[in-house]
Amino acid sequence: MIRAIVTALTLLAGAPAVAQSPLIIAHRGASGERPEHTRAAYELAIEQGADVIEPDLVLTRDGVFVSRHENEIGGTTDVADRPEFAARRTTKVIDGVETSGWFTEDFTLAELKTLRARERLPQVRTGNVAFNDRDPILTFDEVAALAREASARTGRTIAVAPELKHPTYFASIGLPMEDRFVAELEKLGLTGADAPILIQCFEVGPLERLSMRIDAPLAQLINGSGAPADRPQQSYAEMITAEGLGRIAGYAAWVAPEMTLVLPRDAEGRSGAPSRIVADAHAAGLKVVVWTARAENAFLPTEHRRGQDFAAHGDMPAYVRDLARTGVDAVFSDFPGLAREGLEKVEASTP
Fold this sequence. Notes:
It is an enzyme of class 3 (hydrolase). It holds the Pfam family GDPD. Belongs to the glycerophosphoryl diester phosphodiesterase family. Residues 22-343 form the GP-PDE domain. The chain is α/β, with parallel strands linked by helices. The protein has a single domain, classed as TIM Barrel (Alpha-Beta Barrel). The protein has 13 helices and 13 strands. Helix 2 (39-47) links the parallel strand 1 (23-26) and strand 2 (52-53). Helix 2 runs parallel beside helix 4 (140-154) and helix 12 (316-325) packs across helix 13. The protein starts with 7 loop residues before the first helix and ends with a helix. 46% of the residues are buried.
């Protein structure tokens, strides 16, 4: 395998002097093959060669960061089958969206630790259902410790990429995230410019404020439509213009657009020519990470689908190669092993 000898730490902290193979960030772990945000998913991702593992972070009632995609946990745990928690089912408005279920902020950490994780997409990832009800919910501390232990065991830097979920909402219910998060980073020794971490958020204000308190690299997430929950007057489309990317560079080191913003698709779902985002971001001094490469046909562009079954796997490695050729610096994937396969073929073809 031809691969530049550059650690995740080096690529996260500073712009590489020469072109490098993109980092692979395991999206919620190897979540295509194990229920997301579980120890099993993170460990498999590291085994498959991921450079970085991602925990989405929400808060418990007692103010502890736990790794869940959303604060609503009815679809990712066994809480709906637990009669002792039946009365806690409720409806809330999260970032303008009415959502019903069970919410982490209504549980203490001790209560959440009695729950077990389940596959979020059981109709798509049927094989993952076999791993339901095995793993407990992890705290951010536990995910960071897992990465640290894996780094020592493997001899390569395994970084973490925590995403702060819904900080404006959590602040509105008396659970502001930022002070708690900075205290957590200080405890873990993850505040420095060279820390093996990449901190993400769809909102703008939390990143701007964190940039004045810590030196760790930050990433502004960019959705394919809409606007940040804390800046509804500022669309994501405006944020990825050359001018908007320049503003992001004032507080973040990375920009993280949804992948079809970098490789747009036509009406038939085929990938077209790359947009200007990568070139404009690099010109502004930003690195680019795209999300999220998934193996199922339902998530792939038409040219990489195989067969008619939406849940069957297409040629995700080829799609990752297409993304790599746009010059992106990192790729989020639910299937880090397949992403690694795609990147190895790019490296093998590079003189």
